[in-house]
């Protein structure tokens, strides 16, 4: 178990603190009912506990305060009107707001927790910061946006746990903040820092009209406050796709279709996981599934560079759409399932996502479409092949392991990030009996 040591409220330095009021764009509003996003970063750190508390924890707190000077929205709250047509806003008030920063000590086996083999998902939850519950104030819910927990493994390591509300920012934004925080912690504020964020919501065209449409829709969705029901009855495992693994997957796809277009590392990795999971679920359940029953794969798409003109890379907030691939069940689990899955994913990227003006077309129907798809046979992905979590160095090297506990709350989802060797890392969470079948199929079919 984890033993509580201390808790702090961390805010931007008082001399720099100014009120901040930001409207939510329609792409922020869509995430209002969604559960918190949780990330765990494990670092080897062999210093004694006393040194970690006196030096490392102090450095993390002080640098977090300095980072929040540039990212004040993360210390703020979303004001979500409960019984009116007023639109939600994000506000930071210096006299009210701060980030909860908790410190714990754990006696768990660190080497077990950071393994790639199958592990009990429940063991990670002592390391995850608890997002404070929503507050009620003048017919508004006040939603907290960020909370941090550092867990010390005596003389062995620390774990930095981060939980954030999705409406404050997508993965690109949050990882950008973590990179900024890590840089200040490692080299100080006076040195060359990563590019500072931009919060200018008017950059988003059509946002006002679409905000009203999305707000009416999300008010009909019961909010997920991130409550986890134990036991989760899930295990998690990590699967690494090295550059050589990815090349073999690409070669396999090209062998079947020499004219294959947009054959990226993401496409072949996702196709491999999708086909392997579909076969495994079919084998494990033993249920009769219609050959023509649709199978879906849903993935996030960063829109910043896909607009005309593009949004700046350092735009802070949500600018994520989604891609979708669809195949009949019989084709996905068949001998040619992998190349067909890769082509289905690549086709949506090629024919819709990468065409200017197409990505946001019909976005007012997204919630309805995703709701319908989620009730069917569907796999989704959390994260991105472009996200470099293993590059987050606070001064003692990069993390030895990243985990995304959030995928435990989705029926079938995997996490994805760039791996230290330049390949891709996949995290998967499944019930034990399903994971056993998946693992056997994956070991036999990774190179297709």
Key terms for this structure?
448 residues, alpha+beta, 6-stranded mixed sheet, 31% helix
Beta-strand residue percentage: 25-35%
Oligomer: single chain
Percent range of helical residues: 25-40%
Structural class: alpha+beta
Order of helices and strands: EEHEHEEEHEEEEEHHEHHEEHHHEEEEH
Regions with pLDDT < 50 over 5+ consecutive residues? none
What is the approximate shape? globular
Could you characterize what this model shows?
The chain is of the alpha+beta class. Helices cover 31% and strands 25% of the residues. It is built from eleven helices and 18 strands. The chain has helices at 26-29, 49-70, 110-113, 171-187, 207-218, 243-256, 265-285, 329-332, 337-353, 366-374, 432-445, and strands at 2-10, 20-23, 37-44, 77-81, 89-92, 99-106, 119-120, 135-137, 140-144, 146-153, 157-164, 235-241, 294-302, 320-328, 377-383, 401-403, 413-418, 424-430. The chain has a seven-stranded mixed β-sheet with strand order 7-12-18-17-15-13-14. It has a six-stranded mixed β-sheet with strand order 1-6-10-11-3-16, covered by helices on one side. Strands 2-5-4-9-8 form a five-stranded antiparallel β-sheet, with no helix packed on it. Strand 8 (135-137) and strand 9 (140-144) form a beta hairpin. The radius of gyration is 22 Å and the shape is globular.
Give a brief outline of the structure.
This protein is α+β, with helices and mostly antiparallel strands and 448 residues long. The chain has eleven helices and 18 strands.
């Amino acid at each position: 178990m984890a033993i509580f040591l201390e808790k702090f409220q961390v805010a931007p330095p008082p001399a720099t603190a100014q009120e901040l009021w930001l409207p939510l764009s329609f792409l922020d509003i869509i995430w209002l009912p969604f559960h918190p996003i949780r990330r765990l970063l494990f670092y080897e750190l062999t210093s004694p506990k006393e040194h970690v508390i006196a030096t490392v924890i102090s450095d993390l707190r002080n640098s977090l305060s300095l980072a929040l000077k540039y990212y004040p929205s993360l210390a703020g709250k979303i004001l979500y009107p409960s019984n009116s047509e007023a639109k939600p806003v994000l506000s930071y008030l210096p006299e009210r707001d701060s980030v909860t920063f908790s410190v714990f000590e754990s006696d768990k086996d660190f080497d077990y927790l950071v393994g790639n083999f199958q592990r009990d998902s429940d063991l990670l939850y002592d390391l995850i910061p608890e997002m404070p519950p929503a507050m009620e104030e003048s017919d508004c819910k006040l939603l907290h946006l960020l909370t941090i927990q550092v867990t010390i493994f005596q003389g062995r390591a620390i774990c930095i746990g981060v939980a954030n509300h999705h409406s404050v920012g997508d993965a690109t934004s949050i990882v950008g903040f973590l990179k900024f925080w890590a840089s200040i912690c490692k080299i100080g504020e006076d040195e060359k820092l990563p590019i500072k964020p931009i919060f200018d919501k008017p950059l988003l065209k059509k946002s006002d009209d679409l905000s009203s449409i999305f707000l009416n829709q999300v008010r009909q969705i019961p909010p997920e406050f991130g409550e986890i029901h134990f036991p989760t009855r899930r295990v998690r495992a990590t699967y690494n796709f090295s550059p050589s693994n990815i090349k073999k997957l690409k070669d396999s796809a090209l062998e079947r279709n020499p004219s294959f277009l947009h054959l990226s590392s993401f496409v072949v990795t996702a196709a491999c996981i999708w086909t392997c999971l579909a076969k495994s679920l079919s084998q494990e359940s033993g249920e009769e599934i219609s050959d023509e029953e649709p199978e879906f794969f849903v993935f996030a798409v960063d829109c910043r560079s896909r607009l005309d003109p593009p949004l700046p890379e350092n735009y802070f907030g949500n600018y994520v759409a989604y891609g979708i691939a669809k195949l009949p069940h019989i084709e996905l689990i068949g001998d040619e399932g992998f190349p067909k899955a890769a082509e289905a994913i690549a086709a949506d990227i090629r024919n819709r996502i990468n065409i200017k003006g197409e990505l946001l077309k019909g976005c007012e129907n997204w919630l309805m479409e995703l709701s319908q798809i989620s009730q069917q046979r569907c796999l989704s992905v959390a994260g991105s092949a472009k996200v470099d979590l293993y590059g987050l160095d606070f001064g003692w090297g990069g993390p030895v392991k990243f985990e995304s506990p959030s995928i435990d709350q989705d029926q079938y989802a995997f996490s994805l990030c760039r791996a230290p060797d330049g390949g891709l890392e996949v995290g998967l969470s499944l019930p034990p009996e399903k994971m056993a079948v998946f693992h056997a199929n994956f070991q036999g079919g990774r190179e297709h």
